[in-house]
C-alpha cells in the first residue's frame, strides 16, 4: 500500500522503553530495624512540599509532593446541580480521581479504570464528614484529583491535597482531613511506604501482611475514613493505626502553614479583599 503523506510514518519495529529501565526489586520486610531503600527509618516519613492556588481557573487548588509522589487537586463550586432529580437540601460532593498516563511504571489508560473509581469512592468517603454540606443546599462541589507521579501512598497524599484544596476554595469545613498510610509485614510497620514497599496482592497468602490508610481530623480527634488491604491481625493493625494518627497530627501544622501563606499572599496582592 502507498504511504499516507498525511501521517507521520513511524518505524516498523519498536521496543518498549521499560526494556532499558532497571527492574524494581521487591523488598522483603522482615526485621524491625530494617534500613529502607531511601535511608529512612521505619517510622520516618518522606519530606513534604505543599502549595495552594496553582490552578487559577478553579475556586481552590493544591499541590502536594512527597518525594516521588506528586498530586494536584482542583475544586469547583459550589454550583447548581444540573439534574433536577438530584436536588437536595444537603450539598453534594463529587470526587474524580485520575492517574495521568505517565504517572506509573506501566502506562495508564486515558479512561478511568476500576482502581481509579475505587480511589474516587474512598476519597469521597474520607472528605464528606469534614464538609458542612448543609451550608450549600441544592448545590454541589466537584473535586478533581490528578496524580502526576505515583511512588506510593498516593491515596493518603490525595486526601491531604483535596482537603487543603477545599479549604483554599473557601468551602466551610469542620476540620482539615489529613491522610497517612502504613505498610505492615509481621512485626514491622513502615510509615509512608514508597512504591517498592507497598502491599502487593501476590503476598496475600502470608499472614499479617498488608497496608492501612487513615484519614484524620486532628483538631476534632476524629477518624473520617480507614481502609486496609491484606490479612492483618488486630494487634498490629491497631498499632499501625496509632502510628498513622500520630503522623497526621505531625502533618497538620504543615497544612495550616500552607493555607496561612496563601491567604497572606492574597491579602498582599489585593488589600481590599
TrEMBL record:
GO-annotated molecular function: RNA binding
Exoribonuclease phosphorolytic domain boundaries: 45-172
Keyword RNA-binding: yes
GO biological process: nuclear mRNA surveillance; poly(A)-dependent snoRNA 3'-end processing; rRNA catabolic process; rRNA processing; U4 snRNA 3'-end processing
Protein name: Exosome complex component MTR3
Record bears the keyword Cytoplasm: yes
Gene source species: Dreissena polymorpha
Function recorded in the entry: Non-catalytic component of the RNA exosome complex which has 3'->5' exoribonuclease activity and participates in a multitude of cellular RNA processing and degradation events.
Amino acid at each position: 500500500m502507498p504511504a499516507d503523506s498525511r501521517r507521520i510514518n513511524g518505524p516498523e519495529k519498536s521496543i518498549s522503553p521499560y526494556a532499558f529501565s532497571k527492574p524494581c526489586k521487591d523488598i522483603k520486610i522482615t526485621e524491625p530495624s530494617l534500613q529502607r531503600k531511601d535511608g529512612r527509618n521505619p517510622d520516618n516519613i518522606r519530606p513534604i512540599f505543599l502549595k495552594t492556588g496553582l490552578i487559577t481557573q478553579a475556586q481552590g487548588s493544591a499541590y502536594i509532593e512527597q518525594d516521588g509522589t506528586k498530586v494536584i487537586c482542583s475544586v469547583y463550586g459550589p454550583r447548581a446541580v444540573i439534574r433536577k432529580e438530584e436536588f437536595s437540601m444537603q450539598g453534594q460532593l463529587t470526587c474524580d480521581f485520575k492517574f495521568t498516563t505517565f504517572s506509573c511504571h506501566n502506562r495508564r489508560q486515558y479512561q478511568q479504570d476500576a482502581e481509579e473509581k475505587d480511589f474516587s469512592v474512598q476519597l469521597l468517603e474520607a472528605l464528606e464528614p469534614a464538609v458542612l454540606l448543609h451550608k450549600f443546599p441544592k448545590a454541589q462541589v466537584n473535586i478533581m484529583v490528578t496524580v502526576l507521579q505515583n511512588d506510593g501512598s498516593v491515596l493518603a497524599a490525595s486526601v491531604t491535597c483535596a482537603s487543603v484544596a477545599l479549604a483554599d476554595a473557601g468551602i466551610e469545613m469542620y476540620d482539615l482531613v489529613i491522610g497517612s498510610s502504613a505498610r505492615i509485614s509481621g512485626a514491622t510497620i513502615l510509615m509512608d511506604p514508597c512504591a517498592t514497599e507497598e502491599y502487593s496482592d501476590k503476598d496475600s497468602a502470608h499472614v499479617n501482611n498488608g497496608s492501612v490508610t487513615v484519614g484524620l481530623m486532628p483538631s476534632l480527634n476524629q477518624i473520617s475514613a480507614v481502609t486496609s488491604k491484606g490479612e492483618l491481625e488486630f494487634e498490629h493493625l491497631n498499632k499501625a493505626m496509632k502510628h498513622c494518627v500520630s503522623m497526621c497530627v505531625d502533618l497538620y501544622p504543615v497544612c495550616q502553614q500552607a493555607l496561612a501563606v496563601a491567604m497572606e499572599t492574597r491579602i498582599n496582592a489585593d488589600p481590599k479583599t
